[in-house]
Amino acid sequence: MVELGRIERPDAETFAGKRKLYCVANIYPIAEAPDDYKDLLNKYWDEVALHLEKLEIAGKIKKIFCEMVYLEGNEALDALSRLNEKASITIKKKIEEGGTLLPLESKEIFGPYIDWANCLKVVLTNEVFSKIYEFFSEISEKRLEHILNVIDSNLKEDEAGLLIMKDEERARLQFPKDIEIFLVTPPSYDNIIRWFREKWKEIA
């Protein structure tokens, strides 16, 4: 596994002929966010774009996978623009450069996954939380299995793909050994994590 942000450029010859997956943590906008967070968010996605350009010396992005996307074409891009405009800009650029955006999610799995996740946010008792968490864990595993299958079946030999997904969920994926994983971690990523930690301290 290679972590971009700690190195300048990959050695293209080292990864020739291999399947490659460039993984970007999906950082979302926050409604009515303070200006300092907006600045961090904009800087993060700008740095991601620059790092991907450096990384593509190992292989141009041909397949694009993004969490929460189960639609295709313009429908998918429109939905992405509403959810995370900065991520959608990055994806549109890679489509213009020859990449293809593929549905990563299954609508039949993703719907219940979101419903159970929302239930966990509002439940008050431990007993009910435990029951709901069982359902959530079950559908979560099905979702991750589906995501892995989509990536494995669509990323061909010597191709490079882009995966945009929450870091904690991406970390649970057990990728096939023949896929070389690149983690795109620009300096602003650490600053965003630090920002959230400080906000939690203020709330606690």
Helix vs. strand class? alpha/beta
Order of helices and strands: EEHEHHEHHEHEH
> Rough shape?
globular
Question: What's the level 1 CATH class?
Answer: Alpha Beta
What is the tally of beta strands? 6
Number of helices: 7
Q: Approximately how much helix is present in the residues?
A: 40-55%
CATH third-level topology:
Rossmann fold
Low-confidence stretches: none
Termini gap: 36 Å
Just name the CATH architecture.
3-Layer(aba) Sandwich
Could you report the average pLDDT, rounded to the nearest whole number? 91
Q: Could you give the order of strands across the largest sheet? A: 1-6-2-5-3-4
Oligomer: single chain
Global Rg: 18 Å
Estimate what percentage of residues fall within beta strands: 15-25%
For the report, how would you describe the main beta sheet? 6 strands, parallel
How many domains? 1
Structure, described:
The protein is of the alpha/beta class and 204 residues long. The protein has one domain (2-203): Rossmann fold. The protein has helices at 35-55, 73-83, 85-96, 107-122, 126-154, 167-170, 187-203, and strands spanning 2-4, 19-25, 61-66, 100-103, 160-165, 179-184. It has a six-stranded parallel sheet with strand order 1-6-2-5-3-4, sandwiched between helices. α1 runs antiparallel to α7 (187-203) and α4 packs antiparallel against α5 (126-154). The longest helix has 29 residues, at 126-154. The model has no long low-confidence stretch (mean pLDDT 91).
